[in-house]
Design goal:
It is built from eleven helices and nine strands. By secondary structure, it is α/β, with parallel strands linked by helices. It has two domains: about 190 residues, Flavodoxin domain (Rossmann fold); about 130 residues, Rossmann fold, CATH 3.40.50. The strands form two sheets. A five-stranded parallel beta sheet has the order 2-1-3-4-5, with helices on both faces. A four-stranded parallel beta sheet has the order 7-6-8-9. The protein binds flavin mononucleotide.
Length: about 325
């Protein structure tokens, strides 16, 4: 599973940085994959308000880090932790610029009505320091963050906000800080604990294993962590596959094929499901192996792709049913 942090302050080693680092220090101790992005160090252009994303589902700006790196990362993330100092009772301009570009994800969700595979289980969390004591100090920010998390399909799970903080040293006024962080980290990660890890593997990771992992995450993300990879990954996912998954309401945008080694480098699977193309899978001690005898839809017509999609959906569903029946999560052989 992946937890990402968005560092919205332009100030290095300031209060926001300190708060986010302390938070991720606790998350890291719990052994999950993490990535922190300092937004001010990224090349992110402002939203032009041109309406292109509402017509086409993608941002018109394709050559910056938002399109190249951040949209895929947001779709991949299980938990998004956004951190910002209070600037004029709101988020920093850096974070706000990032948020505005998420209009493209808003469009996919509300105009195109497709949901990314992580949308039912993703969580959002807020961290923010502000200098003054004002009672309403975080109100504007909180409202905005609710809408941001909704646009990226993350369930807003609250946050930690601290008044009277201008510099990291001011956190000394909050002796409960570390405790607050530990409790929040535990409650954020708790729903993702003890999930069975399933690797779906095929040759190119462009089609069958992409569909299987997406169905598993979308339909049962609370009980399985789904990984995907290919023995010889291709450069891009199959566009016909993206189309037939959209017919099912599932958004496969921003996905890239990856190698099996990469897929299992951070998480060791309990179950490995291959898709019938006889690919060589890395040896993972203790992992159960299943082979689904599925035809390769690459190069075939859309109806064939639909048939394979439906067969995969059924197979994923019966695997999930079997896993949920067995009390220890162990499958029958
Ligand atoms: C441009 C700017 C605007 C700010 N506006 C507010 C504000 O409206 N209310 C407030 O309490 N603090 C405000 N502050 C103070 C910061 O929120 C506070 O010092 C925070 O701890 C800075 O975090 P950082 O070290 O991560 O930059 C502002 C600071 C700056 C630079």
């Amino acid at each position: 599973m992946l937890v990402i942090g968005l560092q919205g302050s332009p100030r290095k080693n300031g209060s926001t940085d300190y708060l986010l680092k302390s938070f991720f220090n606790e998350i890291d101790k719990r052994g999950v994959e993490t990535q922190v992005i300092t937004i001010s160090r990224k090349n992110i252009k402002m939203c032009k308000g041109c309406g292109y994303c509402e017509k086409h589902g993608f941002c018109v700006t394709r050559d910056d880090d938002m399109s190249i790196e951040m949209y895929p990362l947001l779709h991949e993330a299980d938990i998004v932790v956004a951190a910002t100092p209070i600037y004029f009772y709101h988020a920093s301009a850096q974070l706000k610029m990032f948020i505005d570009r998420c209009q493209a994800l808003w469009s996919r969700k509300f105009r195109y009505r497709v949901k990314d595979p992580g949308s039912k289980t993703r969580k959002g969390f807020l961290l923010s320091p502000g200098a003054t004591k004002g009672e309403n100090l975080f109100e504007g920010l909180e409202l905005s963050m609710r809408y941001f998390f909704d646009a990226i399909s993350a369930d807003y799970s609250g946050g930690l906000t601290y008044r009277s903080v201008e510099n990291p040293v001011d956190f000394k006024k909050y002796p409960s800080l570390l405790d607050d962080i530990k409790k929040s980290a535990d409650s954020l990660l708790e729903p993702f604990a003890d999930r069975k890890k399933i690797l779906f593997a095929c040759r190119e990771n462009a089609c069958r294993s992409q569909m299987a992992s997406a169905f598993a995450r979308y339909n049962a993300g609370e009980m399985v962590e789904s990984l995907r990879g290919g023995s010889t990954p291709s450069d891009e996912v199959n566009p016909l596959m993206v189309g037939v998954m959209a017919e099912k309401g599932i958004d496969m945008a921003f996905r890239k094929p990856q190698s099996i080694e990469n897929a299992i480098s951070k998480s060791k699977p309990d179950i490995i499901v291959t898709m019938g193309c006889g690919e060589e899978c890395s040896f993972v001690p203790g992992a159960k192996r299943l082979d689904w005898d599925l035809p390769d839809p690459a190069g075939k017509d859309i109806n064939f792709m639909r048939q394979v999609r439906d067969e995969i959906e059924e197979k994923v569903q019966s695997l999930i049913n079997e896993l949920s029946k067995s009390d220890s999560g162990r499958m029958k052989t």
